[in-house]
Amino acid sequence: QSALTQPRSVAGSPGQSVTISCTGTSSDVGAYKYVSWYQHHPGNAPKFLIYHVDKRPSGVPDRFSGSKSGNTASLTISGLQSEDEADYYCCAYAGGYFWVFGGGTKVTVL
Amino acid sequence: QVQLVQSGAEMKKPGASVKISCKTSGYTFTAYAIHWVRQAPGQGPEWMGWLHPGNGNTHYSQKFQGRVTITRDTSATTAYMELTNLTSEDRAVYYCAKDYGGHQLEFWGQGTLVTVSS
């Protein structure tokens, strides 16, 4: 099973929006609603940002939103803030008790 | 609040085994699965396996089948991941994570660095 494909990096100025794509296949991203996103500041535990494609856990700002079209999921960060500078990973359930992750995207706030 | 606290960094020789613990608190341990994930330097996370503490059922990634064993101690609300026959390719940060209850990883431990060197 191949990893999900994410852009290596995206950048934006404070207040702008950035979108991170996560491309999989019809066996993982395209097959289930179980797509999640994580924010990771190196040295810390990854933080649960989005679940079930577009749901936000309690406490996650509504600046973070998720969506999916076909085999590609997306995470959009609106109103970019300096503290959003981090690595972001997508994860999808691929059936048969197997999960696959993306390679990660580094978000830089200019 | 939910917490997953992992054991400390390990340095092992090639061919050795490592066993990492994941002490949980703040929720009903037997109600939610625990995942183990690793992240090698410069790479994305890689899912290794899953255990349901309620019944001890496990599922492992084919990549690690035969080398990884995930267990639990329900009285200690702790999960364990043992990886055998280590090579330099196993150098990574290893994480445990609580399942959300819907096939998604929710809260994560702080990670345990495993270094393999002769």
Features of this protein?
A: six-stranded mixed beta sheet; three-stranded antiparallel beta sheet; 0% helix; B: 118 residues; seven-stranded mixed beta sheet; 11 strands; globular
Number of strands of chain B: 11
Mean pLDDT of chain B: 96
Distance between the termini of chain A: 35 Å
**What is the CA-CA span between the terminal residues of chain B?**
40 Å
Shape of chain A: globular
Strand content of chain A: 35-45%
* H/E topology pattern of chain B: EEEEEEEEEEE
From the helix content, strand content and strand pairing of chain B, which structural class follows? mainly beta
Roughly what fraction of the amino acids of chain B lie in strands?
over 45%
Assign a percent range to the helix content of chain A: under 10%
Assembly of the depicted chains: heterodimer
Residue stretches of chain B low in confidence (pLDDT < 50, at least 5 long) are: none
Alpha-carbon Rg of chain B, integer: 13 Å
The portion of residues assigned to helices of chain B is under 10%
- Alpha-carbon Rg of chain A, integer: 13 Å
The total of helices of chain B stands at 0
